[in-house]
Amino acid sequence: MIIKLDHRQQETAEAIQRIQKPAYEVEAKLIGFDGIPQLKESVEDIQRSDEIFWGMVEERLKGFISFKEIGKTIDIHRLVVDPAAFRQGIGKTLLVHLMEQYGDYDFLVSTGTANEPAVKLYKSFGFAEQKRFEAAPGITLSEFLKRK
């Protein structure tokens, strides 16, 4: 079940952090960069976020997506799946849910260019790469856009 998460609650922010850290550790290995900001994010940082969080909950939090609504664009900030639940369609389900809720919006997301699973996922939903930029020396991110 996908529900809106109240990330300002201590217990929810802890659950987010509990799966976020190992998931971003996987991405860090894929892209060769351990400076991903979410790796160092505290529970308090999560609680202060101005993003909207939705989570896939099946007994416990298995994945979440966070975003900001900017005009008629949904700017996706995080799509995180607990590594213990990889390859179960959770990321896809969260993305479909978001796109259904905001069907008349454009969608924007960035990910490590070398993060092949994420790149493949976004392309499978019709996202097109708009640009690449260097996040740190030798580390390239790709920005993807899907128009309504």
What brief labels describe this structure?
148 residues, alpha+beta, Aminopeptidase, 7-stranded mixed sheet, 4 helices, 33% helix, globular
Description:
GO terms for molecular function: acyltransferase activity, transferring groups other than amino-acyl groups. Residues 10-148 form the N-acetyltransferase domain. This is GNAT family N-acetyltransferase. With 148 residues, this protein is α+β, with helices and mostly antiparallel strands. It has a single domain, classed as Aminopeptidase, CATH 3.40.630.30. 33% of the residues lie in helices and 37% in strands. The protein has helices at residues 10-31, 43-48, 90-101, 116-124; strands at 2-5, 52-58, 60-70, 73-81, 106-112, 128-136, 139-146. It has a seven-stranded mixed sheet with strand order 1-2-3-4-5-7-6. It is globular and about 35 Å long. The model has no long low-confidence stretch (mean pLDDT 93).
